[in-house]
Amino acid sequence: QEEPRLDVLINNAGIFQCPYMKTEDGFEMQFGVNHLGHFLLTNLLLGLLKSSAPSRIVVVSSKLYKYGDINFEDLNSEQSYNKSFCYSRSKLANILFTRELARRLEGTNVTVNVLHPGIVRTNLGRHIHIPLLVKPLFNLVSWAFFKTPAEGAQTSIYLASSPEVEGVSGKYFGDCKEEELLPKAMDESVARKLWDISEVMVGILK
């Protein structure tokens, strides 16, 4: 409402492997924060993004999408909840959302791409219980092998600002390079169905 234009939207809010809980709107927390929140915010800002074109949307996913599936019978995980699978489901949803949005934005000069940042040293893993005896070793490993937040942000920054990806849309990136997706992340019928159901869940369609 306050800004006359919007050049870049980066959807990076996330929660990781939390115990079963719900958002204020009654959604399973990981699906609600990681997918539905991005879906709603992006849709609310689409008009401004289109009027500001050329503009870009960037969605932060995870390689762990590979272990997820979209179970339309239990999207809210009320029948069963596995915190690892539900995280992976939300990250697969990020990719399907990106690809369907790219299809809908063709010809608008608004692009949308999705990325995995790698394993980054942040408090995203605060819900993971690490035994006290193992903690020093874990800390050592994380300092040696995990990315710093600045390193983890590089692909997001690249997709938000690099001239190299001007006009590129609907693609999946890691370490500032395009990467291949598993077939389940490219299933157009699942992506469209997820879009339609998400619209109803967040109240865009009554």
Structure commentary:
It is built from six helices and five strands, in the order E-H-E-H-E-H-H-H-E-E-H. With 206 residues, the protein is α/β, with parallel strands linked by helices. The protein has one domain: Rossmann fold, CATH 3.40.50. A hairpin with a 2-residue loop joins strand 4 and strand 5 (177-178). Helix 1 (29-51) runs parallel beside helix 2. It is globular and about 55 Å long. The model has no long low-confidence stretch (mean pLDDT 90). Pfam families: adh_short. GO terms for molecular function: oxidoreductase activity.
Q: Per CATH, what is the topology?
A: Rossmann fold
Termini Cα gap: 24 Å
Number of E-type strands: 5
Helix content: 40-55%
* Largest sheet, spatial ordering of strands: 1-2-3-4-5
Name given to the CATH architecture: 3-Layer(aba) Sandwich
User: Class in CATH?
Assistant: Alpha Beta
What can be said about the biggest beta sheet? 5 strands, mixed
Tell me the radius of gyration.
17 Å
Uncertain ranges: none
Per the principal axes of the C-alpha atoms, what is the gross shape? Answer: globular
The residue-averaged pLDDT reads 90
H/E series: EHEHEHHHEEH
Give the count of helical stretches. Answer: 6
Fraction of residues in β-strands: 5-15%
Short recap of the structure:
The chain has 206 residues and is α/β, with parallel strands linked by helices.
What are the main properties of this structure?
single chain, 206 residues, alpha/beta, Rossmann fold, 5-stranded mixed β-sheet, 6 helices, 40% helix, globular
